[in-house]
Write a structure and sequence with these properties.
The protein is an alpha+beta fold. Helix content is about 50%, strand content about 10%. The strands form 4 sheets. The chain has a 5-stranded mixed beta sheet with strand order 1-2-8-5-3.
């Protein structure tokens, strides 16, 4: 395959390859593979070959310079296709470009300005349910908060009005999708196991909610659903099933990564009181007793750095997969079409070549000089290139405003002593993340 030889990589066992090494600790496996075998390394999971890329310039080649030579690939479609259909996260080619163009106005700066009050109001509504000194599962709180914000901002819908617990339904389908990626042998959906029955109920609930949201909208409005209904009148390629796919895609992708970013940033603050004090000092100086607005964001640089550092140490998406659509040369190796390339934010965000004391949570590292010298893809929480997450600026604004709103009146203390993860499509915690919340005096 290679120009001279195949890339190096960890030795495995017959039939199962490196599956057992990977399953015991995927994040450690990624790090050790990069450290021991260099910028391009090969490993095998359950009969599938992966080529891990751990160099910022090579990641940039895949996601930016040679992006048209890569596609999302079979693994993403097998894992998420039953949930997201042909939504923006999975669609390819010209149809993807048209859909992205149709939906882009909902994520432009003027639209983000309009969303800011919703982000703050809904965060304050969550905080009203907190009691001084109680222990909260902040991951559960953040998942509920961000799905409510996404629905209201993007669809003009109060998701609480729907009978189904959408947060639970989204979590269920994500659990099942991740199992498809991580289990060497998976049980078909048709087998009526308890897990499969929950999964089918969750799919049905999401389909019903998406259908109801679409039915409650008309063409001509400025929310995403109305924009797509307007486009439907002008394009035979767009029907209500496709619009439902986009609704579920935006609810899923539009809430989970931000929820994880906030969860892990709050945990990092709880375990780093010095950084918490700096954050509180900035918020107090800028806001006083009032709520934040989008106009405050430039005046909250430490808040921005805190979110950025949280997403560096604990990237909500810990890895990106692409499949070659045609032969590609990468890092001195020639890969045929159909090769699976894996790029790990977890590895590059914690690479000591780029970050001093990389496991330390230190927001102050993000100076202008540091950012200027950092290779572009040594930090890529939202991917990059044309397929960069459409909602990246939405998520960053939401996380900053929510964190400032919380830090204004609340502090957190650790109850969960150490994070543990269930990494797959996203870097999800495998246990509740419990923090004690304290009202600031």
């Amino acid at each position: 395959m290679g120009t001279d030889s195949d890339p190096p990589g960890p030795s495995g066992l017959p039939l199962v390859g490196n599956t057992y090494q990977f399953a015991s600790d995927p994040l450690q496996f990624y790090e050790e593979t990069a450290r021991e075998y260099g910028p391009v390394a090969r490993y095998e999971l359950a009969g599938d070959e992966f080529y891990q890329v751990s160099d910022p310039d090579l990641v940039e080649q895949v996601l930016v310079h040679d992006n048209e030579k890569f596609r999302k690939g079979e693994q993403y479609h097998e894992a998420l296709g039953p949930v997201l259909g042909n939504g923006l996260l999975l669609s390819e080619g010209e149809f993807w470009r048209e859909q992205r163009h149709r939906m882009q106005p909902a994520f432009n700066p003027d639209a983000l300005d309009e969303y800011a009050p919703v982000m703050v109001e809904y965060t304050e509504r969550l905080l009203d349910s907190w009691a001084d000194g109680e222990v909260r599962d902040v991951h559960g709180d953040m998942m509920q908060l961000t799905v409510e914000i996404a629905a209201q901002a993007l669809f003009d819908v109060d998701i609480r009005a729907y009978e189904s617990d959408i947060a639970d339904a989204l979590a269920t389908v994500m659990d099942r999708s991740e199992q498809r990626l991580t289990r060497p042998v998976d049980i078909p959906d048709s087998v009526p196991t308890p897990t499969n029955r929950r999964y089918r109920r969750a799919l049905s609930a999401l389909d019903d909610i998406a259908a109801e949201i679409v039915a409650d909208h008309d063409a001509g409005g400025d929310d995403v659903v109305s924009m797509l209904l307007t486009a439907k009148e002008q394009s035979d390629a767009l029907d209500e099933e496709q619009i439902k796919d986009e609704v579920v895609t935006l609810l899923l992708a539009g809430h989970e990564t931000t929820a994880l970013a906030l969860t892990y940033t709050l945990f990092a603050l709880a375990t780093n009181p010095e950084q918490t004090a700096k954050l509180q000092e900035e918020v107090d100086d800028v806001l006083g007793d009032r709520s934040p607005t989008d106009e405050d964001i430039p005046d909250l640089p430490y808040t921005q750095r805190t979110v950025r550092e949280g997403m560096r140490v604990y990237p909500p998406v810990q890895g990106v997969i692409r499949e070659t659509a045609e032969p590609v040369e990468l890092g001195g190796y020639a890969f045929p079409a159909g090769t699976t390339v894996s790029m790990q934010q977890w590895v590059l965000h914690r690479d000591p070549r780029f970050y001093d004391d990389p496991e330390a949570f230190r927001p102050s590292r993000w100076t202008d000089d540091f950012e200027r010298d950092l290779p572009a893809f040594a930090y890529f929480p939202f991917g990059g290139g044309p397929r960069r997450c459409i909602g990246d600026n939405f998520a960053k604004q939401e996380a900053r405003l929510a964190l400032a709103t919380m830090a204004k009146d609340w502090a957190v203390e650790p109850v969960t002593a150490e994070l543990s993860f269930a990494p797959s499509i996203t870097l999800r915690p495998d246990e509740p993340v419990k923090l004690r919340v304290r009202r600031r005096e």
